Amino acid sequence: MKPNGTVLVTGGAGYVGSHTVVELLNSNYSVIAIDNLVNCYAHKKEKPESLKRVEQLTGQTIVFYDVDIRNRQALDKIFKSHKIDSVIHFAALKAVGESVKTPLTYYQNNIAGSSTLFEVMQANGVKNVVFSSSATVYGTPQFLPMTEDHPTGQNCTNPYGKTKYFVEEILKDVCIADPDWKVISLRYFNPVGAHESGHIGEDPSGVPNNLMPYISQVAIGRREKLYVFGDDYPTKDGTGVRDYIHITDLAIGHLKALQKMSEPDFKGWKTYNLGTGQGYSVLELIEAFSKASGKKINYAIVHRREGDVATSYADPSLARKELHWQATKGIDEMCRDTWKWQKQNPNGFKKE
Ligand SMILES: NC(=O)c1ccc[n+]([C@@H]2O[C@H](COP(=O)([O-])OP(=O)(O)OC[C@H]3O[C@@H](n4cnc5c(N)ncnc54)[C@H](O)[C@@H]3O)[C@@H](O)[C@H]2O)c1
Ligand SMILES: CC(=O)N[C@H]1[C@@H](OP(=O)(O)OP(=O)(O)OC[C@H]2O[C@@H](n3ccc(=O)[nH]c3=O)[C@H](O)[C@@H]2O)O[C@H](CO)[C@H](O)[C@@H]1O
């Protein structure tokens, strides 16, 4: 075991999980990753490709279990076979549109799955957890920039967003019932980019729902053009404005949360925004990506996407003050690293 202890990472083979595992290994944590492979690529059920790449990058080994967080017995066995100090809980389904069509699948996976995980943790005396939440819990912004005390839950327009809100509420109640629990919920704004090596990155299956991977697939020639969802918003150029954050900055935020929870006076439930505090429009992102890649990004303006807001960006000052965390990478690095990953892996993790 390494000096900083052992972290169980659920959903460790996914986009945010794999980048966080790199930073954990590089910072003297031992890692046990679990994933049910529902949204990551594994050749013939071997260790997921993302984690194999993380092992190559770090020169270290990751203990991996192909386990679903809803499988109580399998989880319990893992907790009984290792001395686990903390959990970082990424495992979830995350496609907004899909969640509207199949809400029960989302509630089952994200809420029942999380509550099973917390029960097994409690039974095994592991009571430290960092939870992957999202700015989506704020719903339509009532003021900007959004601080952590912005109301949550009221305007969550889709089941995915509600699962994040409900799991936060569950964790608050767990902390009230048992003061030994230490919980940090990190509300991510818009994670983009890739590890600077280009070895790991975001690998959406099918047509990307999110802007950055879509732009990047246009640049590499996998898609003909980007559809810009609306240019009539009350923003600088009429297109939607978001707070994009580099995935490595986001990953480091999880290490800062673990450090915070290890302080002797830390107790209960806390939440922090992870964003840069800076908003960029769709057209600005297209321009930055064009510059980084040297490619023209073809696009067409189409109607607004249902459920989208005009502008969303964080007030990240609480994380700066209390976690001593601050985003260090700007939009040019986000585009540069996305492009490096895309160029080196035109088909993502799956070699075709
Ligand atoms: N990427 C974003 O834009 C974003 C923004 C805000 C919040 N989040 C949250 O961060 C977390 C990680 O997101 P990501 O972008 O890495 O997604 P991802 O899909 O790349 O990673 C999630 C991983 O969890 C696994 N998984 C899903 N359900 C599981 C289950 N029942 N048991 C075990 N493994 C399971 C998937 O196979 C996948 O590898 C999620 O909770 C997501 O909701 C992501
Ligand atoms: C409604 C929705 O899906 N919300 C999710 C999406 O938020 P966001 O809608 O903030 O992220 P996104 O990357 O889907 O869109 C960013 C901006 O790009 C625009 N855009 C996006 C794709 C595209 O093909 N064309 C285009 O114009 C979109 O209208 C928005 O103004 O992703 C977040 C994580 O990063 C969260 O998971 C949100 O819950």
TrEMBL record:
EC number, as in UniProt: 5.1.3.2
Cofactor requirements of the protein: NAD(+)
Entry keyword Isomerase: yes
Pathway membership, UniProt: Carbohydrate metabolism; galactose metabolism
Highest taxon of source: Eukaryota
Pfam families assigned: GDP_Man_Dehyd
Catalytically driven reaction(s): UDP-alpha-D-glucose = UDP-alpha-D-galactose; UDP-N-acetyl-alpha-D-glucosamine = UDP-N-acetyl-alpha-D-galactosamine
Physiological role: Catalyzes two distinct but analogous reactions: the reversible epimerization of UDP-glucose to UDP-galactose and the reversible epimerization of UDP-N-acetylglucosamine to UDP-N-acetylgalactosamine. The reaction with UDP-Gal plays a critical role in the Leloir pathway of galactose catabolism in which galactose is converted to the glycolytic intermediate glucose 6-phosphate. It contributes to the catabolism of dietary galactose and enables the endogenous biosynthesis of both UDP-Gal and UDP-GalNAc when exogenous sources are limited.
Record-linked NCBIfam families: galE, PRK10675.1
Family: Belongs to the NAD(P)-dependent epimerase/dehydratase family.
Protein name as catalogued: UDP-glucose 4-epimerase
